[in-house]
Amino acid sequence: MIHRANADFGATTSCPPTSAPAPVTSKYRALAVTCDNSLVPFVPNVFVNQQEIAAGVQRAANALGSTVVRIRYDIGSDWTGDPSIFFRIILTDEAAKKPKLNEIANAIALILTREVKADEHGLHSYFNFRSASEQAALNEPAWA
Questions:
Q1: Could you tell me if 98 and 120 lie in one domain?
Q2: Spatial CA neighbour of 40 closest among 15, 8, 74
Q3: Cα separation of 3 and 11, whole Å?
Q4: Cα angle for residues 28, 30, 32 (degrees, 5° grid)
Q5: Boundaries of domain holding 79
Q6: Total number of domains in the chain
Q7: What DSSP line would sit under 11-60, residue for residue?
Q8: Could you tell me if 72 and 12 lie in one domain?
Q9: Which of 34, 88, 97, 112 could form a disulfide with 22 if both were Cys (CB 3.0 to 4.6 A apart)?
């Protein structure tokens, strides 16, 4: 067997010596390795119940009411390789104004942390904020 290390995540995979690594062309390239034409996903050190996470995000969005336009998230590894959840939060233009932004961002992070319970799932939480008008100008699909 040949053991290959995934440099991004420190994971190793075993491939038979006759197989050559095939390229992975999806957006999940860093999370997968291919051997013998079969995709082997990288599994972090924790198991995450996607339904519990989604329900927690929905509860937080409901609690935040008119301050938040939309909350999106991805689960993956951070720069240290630790399992993490990356929140992308679109605020209303009014909520994104500077005098209130720090207070509102902290309140949103607190509510998301309480509802999602990422730490109980073994995930580090990261929060990114954007105003609705900023998203309209940038039009990034990951934030849509």
A1: yes
A2: 15
A3: 10
A4: 70
A5: 50-143
A6: 2
A7: EEEEE-TT--PPPP-STTGGGEEEETTEEEE---SS---HHHHHHHHHHH
A8: no
A9: 34
Asked whether residue 81 falls in the same domain as residue 128, the answer is yes
pLDDT tens, position by position, 77-97: 999 989 999 999 999 999 998
- Helical (H) or strand (E) element with 133: helix 132-138
Residues 6+ apart with CB under 8 A from 137: none
**3 state SS for 65-117:** HHHEEEEEEEEEECCCCCEEEEEEEEECCCCCCHHHHHHHHHHHHHHHHHHHC
* 67 and 130 co-located in one domain: yes
The pLDDT score that the predictor gives to residue 46 is 57
Predicted TM-score (pTM) above 0.85: no
